[in-house]
Backbone:
């Protein structure tokens, strides 16, 4: 394989990894902001709450997922 092709592939992979890392970074910051806003507004957001617990309260992922699946089902409110 020519050197330029290998370099191009490496740069594409590196760019993808950097883009993914930035996406995760912004997702972590967004989780905190959304969590605080939901708490202030009194809005229940179970997935967000568990994500916050994993990221900021050292909750194990397995425990967060289990807690979500153990929740009682309830009807969602639909507004049109």
Residues:
């Amino acid at each position: 394989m020519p050197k330029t092709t290998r370099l191009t592939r490496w740069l594409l992979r590196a760019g993808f990894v950097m883009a993914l890392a930035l996406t995760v970074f912004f997702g972590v910051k967004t989780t905190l902001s959304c969590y605080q806003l939901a708490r202030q507004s009194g809005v229940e957001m179970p997935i967000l709450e568990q994500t916050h617990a994993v990221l900021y309260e050292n909750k194990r992922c397995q425990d967060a997922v289990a807690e979500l699946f153990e929740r009682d089902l309830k009807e969602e409110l639909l507004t049109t």
User: Anything to note?
Assistant: The helical segments are 3-41, 46-56, 61-70. The first helix runs from residue 3 to 41. Residues 22-68 form one domain.
